[in-house]
Recover the amino acids of this structure.
C-alpha cells in the first residue's frame, strides 16, 4: 500500500502527488470521481463509458437532424416487390 501526505489548500484543493499521477497516468484536465464510504474518501479516474460520454459531449454536431423522416421512402423501398 502506498500512502503519501498532501495538504488541502485554502480553496479546498488537493494536489495529487506526482508518484500517484504517474502511476495512474493522470493528465491535466482529466475528470476524477470522489466517493465516500463510511469514513473513507475514494478517488478514481474516469473510465471507459464515462470517458466516451465526455468525448461525445465535446464533439460539435455539424449536421442537423431532419425534422421528419420518411422511413418507407428512405429504407423500406428496397424491400418492395412490385415486379
Amino acid at each position: 500500500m502506498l500512502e503519501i501526505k498532501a495538504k488541502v489548500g485554502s480553496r479546498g484543493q488537493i494536489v495529487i502527488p506526482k508518484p500517484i499521477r504517474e502511476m495512474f497516468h493522470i493528465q491535466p484536465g482529466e475528470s476524477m470521481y470522489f466517493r465516500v464510504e463510511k469514513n473513507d474518501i475514494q478517488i478514481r479516474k474516469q473510465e471507459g463509458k464515462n470517458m466516451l460520454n465526455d468525448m461525445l459531449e465535446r464533439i460539435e454536431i455539424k449536421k442537423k437532424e431532419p425534422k421528419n423522416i420518411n422511413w418507407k421512402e428512405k429504407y423500406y423501398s428496397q424491400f418492395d416487390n412490385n415486379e
Summary: The chain is about 25% helix and 15% strand. The longest helix spans residues 48-58. The domain at 7-62 is CATH 2.10.260.10 (Pemi-like Protein 1; Chain: D).
